[in-house]
C-alpha cells in the first residue's frame, strides 16, 4: 500500500527502489502465506479432510457444540458424556481461544451463505493460522533486524517441521492458533519497546489475552517478558519505552486473563504469574529512582538514595515474606504439576505418572532436534552472534527467548514447538546477515554499489537494503512530507542506528569475491536441504491422521480404518446412554465419534478416576467386572495391535495403567506384572499378568486366527492361549482386530438353594456386592 | 368455499362410483394364476388374470383387492393388458389407481384398473398384474445368533382375494432355498424343491380368503434404507451434484449376543449367513467425483466401475450388518448437466432424472428427493408417473441472496421398480448465472477502492 502512494513525479531512484522493495516484500509475504498454507495440506491430499488424533477431536466436539448452541450455552456447558459419573464443566475448564476462533470463522462464513461444515472449518484453521504466524514472524524479526531478516525468518517458519507437526490440516489443536498468538504478542511487545506507543501497548495486552484464551503456554510469555524487562533494567537499559511496554501489559493483561474462566483467579494466585508482579514492583522502583534522579541535584539524590534504600529494603522484605507465606501455603508451592515438571525434569516421573505417561511430555532425543528444526540448529548460534552486533533491547529479547526455549524444549518434547519460532527468527537473522555480507562484498568487488544485481539470492537481501536506505532518507524528508502513519513509524531511533552502523560495517567486512560466491552457494545449498527436509517431513512424517493407518504392500495400499469402524459401530448399534470404558487415550474420540459416555478421557484432570479404570484393567476378570459394573459401564473397549503389528496398543500401554492404578490403589503392584523386571506376555509371564482383564480382553480367541497366537507387536507367542470369559462377552471386533469391544454380562440370577449357601460369602464377595474392599467406588 | 366444493366433489364422486361398482359385480375371473416370489426380502407377486364380463353393460374397469396388511406394505401395483396370441403377444400398460370403496369388508383396500377399451358383455381380457410388497417377511425366531440362519414367516391367502367370483386359480410360491420349515396346507397343496403349489381351486366366491403361513429360510440381505434423502443440485455451470444420505439397517432377525470376528472371518459359510457386507449402487454413466463417506470421514471400502450404460459402485459399510444393526453413510457424485437438463419447446427447462434409490434390491421406507434449482428460477413443478407428496422449500447455498427453490418430493415404501424417470420443469434466465461472480468482483473492487481512500485520507487533527 505504501507502494501505491510513493511514485510521484519527482521521485528519486531511491524512492523508486523503496517502493519496489515494499511491493516485492508484500508479494513475498503473500507467497510465504500460500506456502505455509499449502505445505500443510499433504494430510488432506494423502489421506482425507478429517480431524486428527485425540485432542483435536475434543476441540472439534466443543466447536460443534458452540456452533449449535451459541456462546452463552458454551460457557455454561456441563458435559455429562464424559468422566461419568462426575461430568466435566467444559466452559470453565477449556482454553476457549481455538474454539471461539473456529466458531467465529464458521459463523462469518455461514452468514455470508458459504455453507462450509464445522468440520471443514476446523480442519483448515491450523494451516490458515500458520500463514498468520509466519507473517507475525516477519513483523517480529523486522522489528529486530529489518525486513530482510524478517522475510527470511518468515519463510523458515512457514515450513519448520516442528510447527508443521502441530498444524497440518486436521490438527485442530490449541497450539495451532497459540503459536501465532505467541509470536504476535512478542511482536507487539517489541514494537512497543521500539516505539514507546501506548497504542501498541494496549494491543499487546489484547494479543496476550488472545494467547491466554488459546493455550496454557501463555505462562511462557508472562515469565519471559518480565525476565527481559529485568535483564534490561540490570544491564542499565531502562527507558520510559520499557515502562510503557511492560506496565500496561501486566495490568491489562492480568485483568483480561482473569476473565478467561479456566484461568480466573489463577492469574494472580499461582506461582507461574509471580515473576511478572515482582518485576512490576521493581520497574516501578526503578522508574521512581530515575524520576527522582531527574528532578534532584546529584547531592540531594545521594541523600534520597540512602533514604529510599532503607525504606525499600523494609518494603521488599514484607513483600517477599507475603509471597513466601502464600507460596508455602499450597502443597506444590503454588505451581501446577506440569510447570513443576518443567522446572524439575524428574518431578513428573517421580510423583505424577499420568503426566509422565504421555509421550509428548518426555524429554526429546538429539535426533528429534534434527528432525524438527533441522539446519536451523546450526544457524541459531550465528543468529545469536548477529544479535549482539549491536545489541539492542529487541535483539536482547530474542536472545533471551531462544535461550529459554532451548531449555524448555530440552525438558518436554512438546515444547519444541516454542523453540521453533525462536530458531526461525535467529536463523532468519543469521541468513540475512550472511547474505548481506556476501552480496555486499560481491557488489563491492564488482565495483559500484549502485549496480543492482538481480540474482535470486539477492531477493532476501534487497528489501532490507532498500528499507534501511529508505528509512534514513525518509527520516530527513519527513518534515516536508505529509505525516502519514508510515512516516511516523520510520522516525523511531533504534531502527536507524543499526542501518547507519551496518553501512559503516559493510566497508570493513569485505571478503574476497570467490569466497563470497562459494559461501553464497553453500548457503543456498543449506537452504535447499532445509526445504527438501521440510517437504519430506510434511509429506511423510507428520501428515498421518493416526485414526486411519495405511501400509504399502506389494498389492497396493492397504488401509486400516478400524478405529472409525468400531466408533461407527458403537454410535449406531448401542443405546445412546450406554457407558463405554476404555483407557483414557480413546476418551475424546469415543465421545466425539461414537457419541457415547466415557469414564475417563484425555483431559486427565482426575487421577483417581483414571486410576480406577487402570485398576479395573489390571484386575482379574471378576474384580474388574465389579468395578465396571459399579460405574454403570456397559461396554469395554480395548485396542489390540497384535494381529497386524500396530505397536501403540493397550498391551504396550498396560504398564502405565498398572502404575497409575497402583498409585491410588496399592493392591495393584507393578512387580506382580513383571517377570524379573521384564514386561512380557509369553508363557514366561506372571500369573497376575496372564489373568488380568487387559490380557484376556486383548487375546480372547486370538489363538484361533493362526493356531499359535503369535503376537506381531511383541514378536512372541502369547502365554495363555485358550481361555473363556465369564463376565464379559465379545460384541464387536473390528476388521483387523485393532479395536475389540466387550459387553459386561448382566449379573447372574441367584439360584435359590445357592443363595442360602453363599449368604455368608455374598456380603464380602457376592455378585452385587458393593462393600468389596477392592472396589474403589464404594 | 373451497371446502364446500370439496364436499360436493366427494358426493359427486360417491354417486358416480356407485354405478361403476354395481357393474363391477358383473365381472368374473375365469382363470387366475399367481406366482409369489419370496427369494429376496421384496415380495413380488405376478398375477395372470383372465377376466370375463358376464353382465349386460360394458365394464370400463375392474378392482383388485388387498388385505389390510398388504395394503399397508404395498409398494407398487402395475397392470398390463395382453393382446394378441401366443407368438405376437403385445403388452399395453394400464392405468392403476388406488380406489375407495364405501362398503369394503374388513378394511379391504382396492386398486382400480382401467381397461384400454370398455369390456363388452361376454368379452374376455387377459391381464398381467405385478404388485410388490415390502416388510412382509416376518423373522421367526425374532432373534438369532451369529451361527444361525434366518427363518421368516410369510402370511398370505391360498386363494386370491378378489371382489369377483374366481372360477379357477392356482398359486405358486417360490422360496429362496429348499429349506421350508412348515407351510399351511390347504388341499390340494404340495411342495417340490423350491416351489410350493396351492391349487388349483375351483369356483371360489368373491372375498374368499384362506390364510396360509409359510415358514422358510431366507438369508438374502434384508437391506432396508430407513430414510434416504437425495439432493440433486442443478448448476447451470455444467454439472449436477447429487448427494445421498442413507440410513441403512438390516431388517431381518435381530442379532443376539456375541459377534465373533474370528468366526465371521474363518467360517463364512455357517457364520453370519443372513448378514451382509457388500452393497451395489447403480449410478448414471459418465459419473465423476464420486465419494462415499459418513459423519466421521471417508470410508475406504468401495470400487467404482464406470460404463457406457451405467456405472456401478460396489461398496461396503464400515462393518458387516447383522440383524438390527444400523449404519449411516453418504454417497455423492456429479454428472454432466447436458445428459439430464433439457430445454422444452416453450423455453422452459426441465430436469429428467431417475426416481428411487440407486441401491440394488433395497427397500426405502422413506424417500425424500430434493431438487435444488438454481437461484432465480421460477414456476417449478414436477411430473411423476405415480403420486408423491410435493413441497417447495428455499435453500441458501454459496453466496445466495434470495435463496434457491427446492422441489421436495417425498414417498414412502420405495422399491427398485420405482426407479423411473421423472421431470421437474422450471423457468430460468441465464443472466442470473453471473450474479455471484459479479458480487465477488465488486466486493474485491470495493476493498481496493476503500484501501486507496484510506491511504489518501489524512485523519490527523493537527498537521505536523
From TrEMBL, chain A:
Transmembrane segments: 20-39, 89-109, 121-140, 146-164, 176-201, 207-231, 243-268, 274-292, 304-328, 369-388, 395-413, 509-532
Catalyzed reactions: a di-trans,poly-cis-dolichyl diphosphooligosaccharide + L-asparaginyl-[protein] = N(4)-(oligosaccharide-(1->4)-N-acetyl-beta-D-glucosaminyl-(1->4)-N-acetyl-beta-D-glucosaminyl)-L-asparaginyl-[protein] + a di-trans,poly-cis-dolichyl diphosphate + H(+)
Compartment list: Endomembrane system
EC number per UniProt: 2.4.99.18
UniProt pathway annotation: Protein modification; protein glycosylation
Protein name as annotated: dolichyl-diphosphooligosaccharide--protein glycotransferase
Main EC class the enzyme belongs to: transferase
Gene name of the encoded protein: LOC104706304
Biased composition (Basic and acidic residues): 463-499
InterPro entries in the cross-refs: Oligo_trans_STT3 (IPR003674), STT3-PglB_core (IPR048999), STT3_N (IPR048307)
Originating species: Camelina sativa (False flax)
Residue stretches of biased makeup (Polar residues): 449-462
Pfam families linked: STT3, STT3-PglB_core
Domain Oligosaccharyl transferase STT3 N-terminal, chain residue ranges per copy: 23-426
Cofactor: Mg(2+); Mn(2+)
Membrane topology: Multi-pass membrane protein
Family: Belongs to the STT3 family.
Region annotation Disordered: where it falls in the sequence: 449-500, 753-778
Domain (STT3/PglB/AglB core): residue spans on this chain: 577-636
Keywords from the UniProt entry: Glycosyltransferase, Magnesium, Manganese, Membrane, Metal-binding, Transferase, Transmembrane, Transmembrane helix
UniProt superkingdom: Eukaryota
TrEMBL record, chain B:
Pathway field: Protein modification; protein glycosylation
Signal sequence, renumbered to the chain: 1-24
Location(s) in or outside the cell: Endoplasmic reticulum membrane
Entries under Pfam families matching the protein: Ribophorin_I
Principal location listed in the UniProt entry: endoplasmic reticulum
Entry keywords, A to Z: Endoplasmic reticulum, Membrane, Signal, Transmembrane, Transmembrane helix
Transmembrane segments: 438-457
Membrane topology value: Single-pass type I membrane protein
Domain of life, source organism: Eukaryota
Function: Subunit of the oligosaccharyl transferase (OST) complex that catalyzes the initial transfer of a defined glycan (Glc(3)Man(9)GlcNAc(2) in eukaryotes) from the lipid carrier dolichol-pyrophosphate to an asparagine residue within an Asn-X-Ser/Thr consensus motif in nascent polypeptide chains, the first step in protein N-glycosylation. N-glycosylation occurs cotranslationally and the complex associates with the Sec61 complex at the channel-forming translocon complex that mediates protein translocation across the endoplasmic reticulum (ER). All subunits are required for a maximal enzyme activity.
Self-association and partners: Component of the oligosaccharyltransferase (OST) complex.
Family: Belongs to the OST1 family.
The protein's name in its UniProt record: Dolichyl-diphosphooligosaccharide--protein glycosyltransferase subunit 1
UniProt organism field: Camelina sativa (False flax)
Amino acid at each position: 500500500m505504501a507502494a501505491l502512494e510513493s511514485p510521484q513525479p519527482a521521485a528519486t531512484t531511491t524512492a523508486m527502489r523503496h517502493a519496489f522493495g515494499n511491493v516485492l516484500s508484500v508479494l513475498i509475504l503473500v507467497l510465504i502465506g500460500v506456502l505455509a498454507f499449502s505445505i500443510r495440506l499433504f494430510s488432506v491430499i494423502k489421506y482425507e479432510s478429517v480431524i486428527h488424533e485425540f485432542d483435536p477431536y475434543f476441540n472439534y466436539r466443543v466447536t460443534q457444540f458452540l456452533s449449535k448452541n451459541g456462546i452463552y450455552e458454551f460457557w455454561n456447558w456441563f458435559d455429562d458424556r464424559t468422566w461419568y459419573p462426575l461430568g466435566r464443566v467444559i466452559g470453565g475448564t477449556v482454553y476457549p481461544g481455538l474454539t471461539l476462533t473456529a466458531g467465529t470463522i464458521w459463523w462469518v462464513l455461514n452468514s455470508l451463505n458459504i455453507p462450509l461444515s464445522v468440520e471443514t472449518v476446523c480442519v483448515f484453521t491450523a494451516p490458515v493460522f500458520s500463514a498468520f504466524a509466519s507473517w507475525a514472524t516477519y513483523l517480529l524479526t523486522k522489528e529486530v533486524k529489518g525486513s530482510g531478516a524478517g522475510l527470511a525468518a518468515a519463510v523458515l517458519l512457514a515450513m519448520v517441521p516442528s510447527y508443521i507437526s502441530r498444524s497440518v490440516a486436521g490438527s485442530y489443536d490449541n497450539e495451532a492458533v497459540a503459536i501465532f498468538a505467541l509470536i504476535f504478542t512478542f511482536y507487539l511487545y517489541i514494537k512497543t519497546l521500539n516505539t514507546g506507543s501506548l497504542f501498541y501497548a494496549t494491543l499487546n495486552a489484547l494479543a496476550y489475552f488472545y494467547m491466554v484464551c488459546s493455550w496454557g503456554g501463555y505462562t511462557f510469555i508472562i515469565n519471559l517478558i518480565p525476565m527481559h524487562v529485568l535483564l534490561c533494567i540490570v544491564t542499565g537499559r531502562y527507558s520510559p519505552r520499557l515502562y510503557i511496554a511492560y506496565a500496561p501489559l501486566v495490568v491489562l493483561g492480568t485483568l483480561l486473563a482473569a476473565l478467561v474462566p479456566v484461568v480466573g483467579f489463577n492469574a494472580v494466585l499461582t506461582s507461574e504469574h509471580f515473576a511478572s508482579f515482582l518485576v512490576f514492583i521493581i520497574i516501578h522502583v526503578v522508574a521512581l529512582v530515575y524520576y527522582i534522579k531527574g528532578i534532584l541535584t546529584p547531592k540531594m539524590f545521594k541523600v534520597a538514595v540512602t533514604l529510599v534504600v532503607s525504606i525499600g529494603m523494609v518494603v521488599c522484605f514484607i513483600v517477599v515474606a507475603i509471597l513466601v507465606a502464600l507460596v508455602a501455603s499450597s502443597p506444590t508451592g503454588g505451581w501446577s504439576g506440569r510447570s513443576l515438571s518443567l522446572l524439575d525434569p524428574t518431578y513428573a516421573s517421580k510423583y505424577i505418572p499420568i503426566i509422565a505417561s504421555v509421550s509428548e511430555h518426555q524429554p526429546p532425543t538429539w535426533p528429534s532436534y534434527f528432525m524438527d528444526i533441522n539446519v536451523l540448529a546450526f544457524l541459531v548460534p550465528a543468529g545469536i552472534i548477529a544479535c549482539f552486533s549491536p545489541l539492542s533491547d529487541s535483539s536482547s529479547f530474542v536472545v533471551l527467548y531462544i535461550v529459554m526455549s532451548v531449555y524448555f524444549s530440552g525438558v518436554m518434547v512438546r515444547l519444541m514447538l516454542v523453540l521453533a519460532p525462536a530458531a526461525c527468527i535467529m536463523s532468519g537473522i543469521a541468513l540475512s546477515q550472511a547474505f548481506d555480507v556476501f552480496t555486499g562484498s560481491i557488489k563491492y568487488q564488482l565495483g559500484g554499489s549502485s549496480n543492482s544485481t538481480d540474482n535470486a539470492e539477492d531477493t532476501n537481501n534487497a528489501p532490507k537494503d532498500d528499507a534501511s536506505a529508505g528509512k534514513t532518507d525518509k527520516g530527513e524528508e519527513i518534515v516536508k512530507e505529509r505525516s502519514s502513519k508510515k512516516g511516523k513509524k520510520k522516525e523511531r531511533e533504534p531502527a536507524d542506528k543499526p542501518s547507519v552502523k551496518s553501512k559503516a560495517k559493510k566497508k570493513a567486512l569485505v571478503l574476497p569475491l570467490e569466497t563470497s560466491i562459494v559461501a553464497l552457494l553453500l548457503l543456498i545449498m543449506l537452504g535447499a536441504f532445509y526445504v527438501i527436509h521440510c517437504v519430506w517431513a510434511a509429506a511423510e512424517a507428520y501428515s498421518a491422521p493416526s485414526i486411519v493407518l495405511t501400509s504399502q504392500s506389494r498389492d497396493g495400499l492397504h488401509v486400516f480404518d478400524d478405529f472409525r469402524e468400531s466408533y461407527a459401530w458403537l454410535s449406531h448399534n448401542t443405546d445412546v446412554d450406554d457407558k463405554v470404558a476404555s483407557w483414557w487415550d480413546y476418551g475424546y474420540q469415543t465421545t466425539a465419534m461414537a457419541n457415547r459416555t466415557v469414564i475417563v478421557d484425555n483431559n486427565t484432570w482426575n487421577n483417581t478416576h483414571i486410576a480406577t479404570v487402570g485398576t479395573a484393567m489390571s484386575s482379574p476378570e471378576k474384580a474388574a467386572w465389579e468395578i465396571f459394573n459399579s460405574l454403570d459401564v456397559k461396554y469395554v473397549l480395548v485396542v489390540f495391535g497384535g494381529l497386524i503389528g500396530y505397536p501403540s496398543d493397550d498391551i504396550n500401554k498396560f504398564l502405565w495403567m498398572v502404575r497409575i492404578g497402583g498409585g491410588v490403589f496399592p493392591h495393584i503392584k507393578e512387580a506382580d506384572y513383571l517377570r524379573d523386571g521384564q514386561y512380557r506376555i509369553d508363557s514366561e509371564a506372571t500369573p497376575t499378568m496372564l489373568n488380568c482383564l487387559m490380557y484376556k480382553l486383548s487375546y480372547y480367541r486370538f489363538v484361533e486366527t493362526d493356531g499359535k497366537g503369535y503376537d506381531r507387536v511383541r514378536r512372541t507367542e502369547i502365554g495363555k492361549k485358550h481361555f473363556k470369559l465369564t463376565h464379559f462377552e465379545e460384541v464387536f471386533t473390528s476388521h483387523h482386530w485393532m479395536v475389540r469391544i466387550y459387553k459386561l454380562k448382566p449379573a447372574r440370577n441367584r439360584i435359590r438353594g445357592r443363595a442360602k449357601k453363599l449368604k455368608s460369602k455374598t456380603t464380602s464377595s457376592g455378585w452385587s456386592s458393593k462393600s468389596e474392599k477392592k472396589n474403589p467406588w464404594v | 368455499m373451497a371446502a364446500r366444493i370439496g364436499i360436493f366433489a366427494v358426493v359427486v364422486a360417491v354417486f358416480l362410483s356407485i354405478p361403476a361398482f354395481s357393474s363391477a359385480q358383473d365381472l368374473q375371473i375365469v382363470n387366475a394364476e399367481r406366482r409369489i416370489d419370496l427369494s429376496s426380502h421384496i415380495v413380488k407377486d405376478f398375477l395372470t388374470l383372465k377376466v370375463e364380463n358376464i353382465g349386460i353393460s360394458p365394464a370400463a374397469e375392474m378392482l383388485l383387492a388387498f388385505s389390510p396388511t398388504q395394503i399397508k406394505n404395498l409398494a407398487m401395483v402395475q397392470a398390463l393388458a395382453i393382446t394378441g396370441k401366443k407368438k405376437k403377444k403385445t403388452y399395453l400398460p394400464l392405468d392403476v389407481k388406488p380406489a375407495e370403496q364405501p362398503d369394503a369388508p374388513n378394511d379391504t383396500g382396492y386398486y382400480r384398473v382401467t381397461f384400454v377399451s370398455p369390456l363388452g358383455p361376454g368379452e374376455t381380457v387377459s391381464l398381467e398384474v405385478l404388485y410388490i410388497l415390502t416388510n412382509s417377511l416376518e423373522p421367526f425366531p425374532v432373534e438369532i445368533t451369529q451361527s444361525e440362519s434366518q427363518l421368516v414367516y410369510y402370511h398370505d391367502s391360498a386363494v386370491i382375494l378378489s371382489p369377483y367370483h374366481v372360477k379357477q386359480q392356482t398359486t405358486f410360491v417360490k422360496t429362496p432355498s429348499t429349506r421350508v420349515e412348515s407351510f399351511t396346507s390347504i388341499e390340494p397343496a404340495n411342495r417340490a424343491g423350491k416351489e410350493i403349489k396351492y391349487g388349483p381351486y375351483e369356483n371360489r366366491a368373491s372375498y374368499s380368503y384362506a390364510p396360509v403361513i409359510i415358514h422358510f429360510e431366507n438369508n438374502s440381505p434384508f437391506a432396508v434404507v430407513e430414510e434416504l434423502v437425495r439432493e440433486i443440485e442443478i448448476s447451470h455451470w455444467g454439472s449436477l451434484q447429487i448427494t445421498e444420505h442413507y440410513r441403512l439397517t438390516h431388517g431381518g432377525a435381530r442379532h443376539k449376543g456375541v459377534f465373533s470376528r474370528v468366526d465371521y472371518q474363518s467360517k463364512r459359510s455357517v457364520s453370519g449367513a443372513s448378514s451382509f457386507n457388500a452393497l451395489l449402487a447403480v449410478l448414471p454413466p459418465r459419473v465423476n467425483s464420486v465419494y462415499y463417506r459418513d459423519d466421521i470421514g471417508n470410508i475406504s471400502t468401495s470400487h467404482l466401475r464406470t460404463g457406457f450404460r451405467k456405472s456401478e459402485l460396489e461398496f461396503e459399510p464400515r462393518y458387516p450388518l447383522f440383524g438390527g444393526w444400523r449404519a449411516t453413510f453418504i454417497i455423492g457424485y456429479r454428472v454432466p448437466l447436458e445428459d439430464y437438463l433439457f430445454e422444452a419447446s416453450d423455453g422452459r427447462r426441465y430436469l429428467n432424472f431417475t426416481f428411487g434409490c440407486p441401491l440394488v434390491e433395497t427397500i426405502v421406507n422413506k424417500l425424500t428427493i430434493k431438487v435444488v434449482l438454481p437461484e432465480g428460477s421460477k414456476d417449478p413443478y414436477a411430473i411423476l408417473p405415480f403420486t408423491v407428496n410435493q413441497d417447495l422449500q428455499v435453500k441458501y447455498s454459496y453466496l445466495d441472496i434470495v435463496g434457491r427453490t427446492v422441489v421436495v418430493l417425498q414417498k414412502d415404501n420405495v422399491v427398485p421398480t420405482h426407479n423411473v424417470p421423472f421431470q421437474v420443469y422450471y423457468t430460468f434466465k441465464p443472466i442470473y448465472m453471473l450474479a455471484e461472480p459479479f458480487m465477488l468482483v465488486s466486493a474485491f473492487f470495493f476493498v481496493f477502492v476503500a484501501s486507496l481512500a484510506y491511504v489518501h485520507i489524512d485523519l490527523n487533527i493537527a498537521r505536523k
